[in-house]
Every structure is written in C-alpha cells, then in structure tokens.
Amino acid sequence: MSENNTLSWSKNYSLKWSDFKAEHNPATFEDSHSVIKYGFTWIVDSEKLGSEVLFFIKNIDLSVEFCPLLSSVRISEANDRLLKHEQGHFDLAELVRRENISALQMKFEGKKFQTRGKNEEQRKQFAKEDSGKLIAQEVEKIQKILDERIKKYDKVTDFGNNLEIQSEYNLKFEPLRL
After folding, report:
1. Is residue 21 a contact partner of residue 71, using CB atoms and an 8 Å limit?
2. What are the helix (H) ranges across the chain?
3. How many CA atoms lie within 13 A of 18 on its CB side?
4. CA–CA separation, 96 vs 62, rounded Å?
C-alpha cells in the first residue's frame, strides 16, 4: 500500500478482504462497500511568448485507486462470490480509465493556456495550480461515468447474486489481466 493509503489497480493484483479496512456500518443495506477514485499526474511546462508566459500540459496519466480505509465488508457475508463482485468494481474503474484516457490527454494536447501572476515564480506556481484544476474537472467527469457504470453493474448483477450476469462481467474483465 502506498503512503497515501490507496491501492493502485494492477493486472497482477486482486483485492483481498483484508484490503477492506473501514468498520462496516451494520445499518447499511450493502454487505460490502468499495471506494474507488481516479488519481492523476501530469507535467506542466511554460514558454515565453513576447511579454506573456503560457503554460501547456503534457504526459497526463490517470490511475485507478482503491481506498482501503474507506472500504468495508460485513464480516458475516465475506465470501469469494462477493469479493469477486467487489473486484469487478475495481476492474470496471480500470476499463473506464482505458476508455477515457486518450480523450483526456487529447483535450489538452497542443493547447496553451495563459498564466497569471506578477513574476515568473508566481506564474510557474499558478500554472501548476491552474493546470491541476483543469485536469481535475475532466477527471471528475470520468468519475461520474464510473459512478453510473457501477450503479448499473450493481443493479444488473444484483450485487453479484445474479451469477449468470456476474459471469458475463467477469469475462468482460478478463482481458484487463492479459
């Protein structure tokens, strides 16, 4: 687990119940709860154009992060079928990441943005801050896509209880591991 207490999606790692570290709320309907978010890294660079300094964004990378400290399971219901369903949430997030990473990168590719600030040091700092905000807005849209897809996944699989539909999803996720 990394310093910021998340697990990054990897084709070589599958969730274990020991990854679900939050105390489960006995009043909730669901037997398990996974918190999955997108993280991102990028490089911001700048160039001087006359008296203006413009920044541009490159090398955006998006990662899928499982949050153990926010994820929980009702111990009495912890079984392989349910764990496979929870892994499906993680895999679905990776699938959505792959479907959207190119569009995210192309949104900023070749574009230059004005900076603010009174001196070069301020402009560099604002370029970093502003570029992060621009990317975060786009990542939030991808997170919403994921949230909708997870709702649908939970509904059609009946939280993993519909074994036929769950098996179809499991097959859909298999290529992610190749």
Report:
1. yes
2. 80-108, 120-157, 163-173
3. 2
4. 11
* Closest C-alpha among 54, 84, 48 to residue 173: 84
Tokens of 21: 């570290």
The DSSP code for 23 is P
Collapsed DSSP state (helix, strand, coil) of residue 9: coil
* Chain segment 2-58, per-residue pLDDT in tens: 456 999 999 999 999 999 999 999 899 899 999 999 999 999 998 888 877 889 999
CA distances from 77 to 144, 153, 157, 159 (A): 28, 19, 17, 12
Instruction: Give the Cα separation of 47 and 71 in Å (integer).
Output: 43
* 3-class state of residue 106 by DSSP: helix
Q: Is 39 helix (H, G, I), strand (E, B) or coil?
A: strand
| Prediction pTM value | 0.92
Residue type, 36: I
Domain regions of the chain by residue span: 7-177
Both structure tokens of 67? 């949050």
Rounded distance, CA 166 to CA 153, Å? 9
Residues facing 55 on adjacent strands: 46, 113
